[in-house]
Design brief:
about 170 residues; alpha/beta; 4-stranded parallel β-sheet; two-stranded antiparallel sheet; 8 strands
Length: about 170
């Protein structure tokens, strides 16, 4: 008799830390849509697994509490600051407090530089058109996806963030 193997999906205890004030409150207004998109990928999300920040540095405390409660995956929904606060909550003495912890970032802030540096966000033609229309711009926007312009002006340089080195635009 042939053995039949079933691959079971292992549920990972996930805490979602949301900064509703990111991007001048836009993240909070969009949270229902963001949640719906997350649920398409993760399945239904119980309200108990969602934590909203209420003040600066609150994400740090929420991340610490999540690790203490046995969460194995933390998802930051907000801007770079929200993710940074979450990181501060899971590092002690320059080491992760839970070595197998998985961290994720869903961009909801203003610039979302961290997501851009990992290639998570693209500024395609449709995005540029929406942005230009929203702000009634009368000039063309440049998306330097192959960094040809940045190379020409010498600003495409090695950068680092959160211990990771990458190429990016020097500011």
């Amino acid at each position: 008799a042939a053995a039949i193997a079933f691959q079971a999906e292992i549920a990972v205890k996930t805490r979602i830390i949301v900064n509703p004030m990111a991007n001048k409150g836009s993240c909070g207004k969009r949270w229902p849509q963001i949640r719906a998109e997350l649920e398409k990928h993760l399945g239904p999300i119980d309200d108990d697994h969602i934590a909203m920040t209420h003040a600066p540095n609150h994400a740090t405390k929420l991340a610490q509490e999540a690790v203490d409660a046995g969460y194995q995956r933390l998802v930051s929904v907000g801007g770079d600051g929200t993710f940074s606060e979450m990181m501060n909550g899971v590092i002690s003495d320059d080491r992760p407090i839970a070595p197998d912890l998985v961290l994720a970032q869903l961009p909801g802030g203003t610039s979302n530089e961290l997501s851009r540096s990992f290639g998570q966000l693209a500024f395609d033609e449709a995005s540029k058109a929406r942005f230009a229309a929203k702000y009634e711009l009368t000039f063309a926007l440049l998306a330097d996806e192959d960094h040809a312009v940045a190379d020409k002006y010498g600003v495409w340089q090695k950068r680092s963030m959160y211990g990771r080195s990458f190429m990016g635009v020097a500011r």
